[in-house]
Amino acid sequence: MTDTSALKLTPVHHLHVALGGKMVPFAGYEMPVHYPTGIMAEHQAVRTGLGVFDVSHMGEFEVTGPDRNAFVNRVTTNDVAALETGGVQYSAILNSEGTFVDDCTIYRFDDKIMIVVNAANRAAAWEHIVNQKGGANIRLKDISDDVGLLAVQGPRAEAAMQPLSSIALSGLGYYRVKSGRIAGMDCFISRTGYTGEDGFEVYCRARDTEALWNAVITAGAVPIGLGARDSLRLEMGYALYGQEIDQTITPYEAGLGWIVKLDKGCPFTGDKALRAQKERGVVRKSVGFKLLGRGIARPGYPVWIDGKQVDVVRSGGQSPSLGIPIGTTMLPAGSTAPGTQFEVECRGERIPAEVVRKPFWTQGSVKKA
């Protein structure tokens, strides 16, 4: 039995309990995996209408001082110098071997940078970043416990949120952030997403999270748990730490070479290892697949090519939107072309599978213009 007494709680934990959420341990927090309506209904609510996720468990680090941009450029793979004020950037924090400490999101403001990391990696990422401070003229602050964060996702996101917002949400571009007020509360509002649908991330003071949650629910959002969050992101083929990416996988192997800027004009942690790997080529790569027979590809199931186990299923399940079993795995570099067939062992039976292009779901409302 899991001891829940040591688990942390988000500012709206009591609301999840009151709504009948099935609470489970996740990344050191007690979080709702689903509500009484179930994962399928929550998944479809985001695909067709509007859902709200409590993601206040995520970690946020604030970097201030004259050297902030140069410093963050040294500890992440993407090019912070190319990021305008008000811009948001997907990036990675690597170790010296070029593998993931974590993936992250970078927010650039006039006077600071905010790095958003996964809850499970908050301590490791913080230690890794602090250890690289050296003589940089910066101030680092872990503000995670002071921040509440709600993700509002679905094709109705803009219409539902605009009456609550002090800024014109139609003018907030993809991977952009603005300061404003939502339901009368000071917030940072960004437009990125983890579902393939349009939507916003609303960062607020922890003490304002409950009022913000209630306002978004009143606006028509359905509460969404971890289960649907995972099925939504899997349909988009997005990486999850501990599954598609971890401390044994590089960005090139994960299919995330686009967030690596080797020519950005400054060294960064892991760049030497990545240069060497790019020169010699990867020997394995992350792929998406669909099963061609009956079964569900669950994480950890063995993956076979020509009678040899080459990996395991990294993420997998029945796609609620497509009605087929899908998943991700790592295959040898010569076996990653769409249409390539292999086998997934499901409960002792090897089921044929086929490599397909990601994302699996291509009909979302996300606005990338």
Q: What name does the CATH topology of the largest domain carry?
A: Gyrase A, domain 2
The backbone outline, from C-alpha atoms, is globular
H/E series: HEEHEEHEEEHEEHEEEHEHHEEEEEEE
Strand order, sheet with most strands = 16-15-19-20-14-18-17
- What is the CATH architecture term of the largest domain? 2-Layer Sandwich
The largest pleated sheet is described as: 7 strands, antiparallel
User: CATH homologous superfamily name of the largest domain?
Assistant: Probable tRNA modification gtpase trme, domain 1
Number of domains: 3
| Strand composition percent | 25-35%
Instruction: Calculate the mean pLDDT score and round it.
Output: 97
Question: Total number of β-strand segments?
Answer: 20
The rounded distance between the terminal residues' Cα atoms is: 48 Å
Individual helix count: 8
Structure explained in plain terms:
The chain has eight helices and 20 strands. By secondary structure, the chain is an alpha+beta fold. It has three domains: 4-56 and 145-235, Probable tRNA modification gtpase trme, domain 1 (Gyrase A, domain 2, 2-Layer Sandwich), CATH 3.30.1360.120; 59-143, Alpha-Beta Plaits (2-Layer Sandwich), CATH 3.30.70.1400; 283-369, Aminomethyltransferase beta-barrel domains (Elongation Factor Tu (Ef-tu), domain 3), CATH 2.40.30.110. The strands form four sheets. The protein has a seven-stranded antiparallel beta sheet, with helices on one face. The protein has a six-stranded mixed beta sheet with strand order 10-11-12-9-3-13, with helices on both faces. A hairpin with a 2-residue loop joins strand 1 and strand 2. It starts with 12 loop residues before the first helix and ends in a 13-residue tail after the last strand. The mean pLDDT is 97.
